[in-house]
Amino acid sequence: MKHSRSSMLAAAALLGLAGAAGAHPEGTAAEAQLKRQNAALRESLVAANQREKESAEALAKIRLSLEALGKNLIDGGDDRLVAAVSDLEILNRRLRELEEAALRLSGSVKSYLKTAVAADPDARAQVEARLRELEAQVGLRQRPQPHIDLGTLQEAKVVSIDSESGLVVINAGNKAGVRIGMVFRVSRSDRGIAEAVVAETRENISGLLVQSQQDESNPVRVGDRAVLNVE
Fold first, then answer.
1. Looking at domain 156-228, which of 3.40.50.300, 2.40.10.340, 1.10.10.10, 3.40.50.1700 is its CATH number?
2. How does pLDDT run across 143-176, given as a tens digit for each residue?
3. Confidence (pTM)
C-alpha cells in the first residue's frame, strides 16, 4: 500500500511537471530543467512499478509453496518443514546444473571421438559405453525402470528416504489419488512412527515431509507402512 501511494505521488508529480513545462512555450533553461526532472521521475516510476511486480510475484510463489504443505505452516507451523522445502529446492537446482554439465561433457567427448584416431578399439568402446550410461542418467536415453510395487491411499510403503532433505518417498502417486497437502500416518508392525505431509507427487510415487515423530530415536525407515490420515 505504501508503495502504491508512492507510485501515485510520483505519477502526480509527472503530470504537474508536464503541465509546468507546457506553460513555457519558449525554449528556456527552466523548461529544459523541468523536462529532465520529468524524464527522471518517469524512469523512477517505471522502476518502482517493476520492483513492486517482482515482489508480488515472489511473495505469491512463496505462499503457494507454503500452502502446499498445509495451512498450519503459514500460521506458524513447524519451521523444519520450511527448511526442508528450501533444501529440496537447492538439491533440485544442483541436479539441474549437474545435468547441464553432463550434457556439455557428453557433447564434447562425442565431438572428440569423431576426430580422434582410435589406436585402442577397446578403450574407445569403453568410453562410448560410459557415454551411454551418462546419457541414460540425464534422460537422453530410455533406461530400464526399476520395478516398484504400486501402493494406494490405504496401503503404501516407504521406498526411499533422502538423507539430505529428509524427504520420504512412498510408492503411491497421482494415479493412486495422492495430492499435495495430504497427511499420511507412518507405522511399523502396527506401531505408529510418524505423520508426514505430501510435498511433491509424481505418477506412481510421492515425496513426504515428516511433520511429527513419536520417538526421535526411532525414525522413519524404508519398508515402513504409510496410510492416509482421514481423521
1. 2.40.10.340
2. 555 556 789 999 999 988 887 778 899 999 999 9
3. 0.40
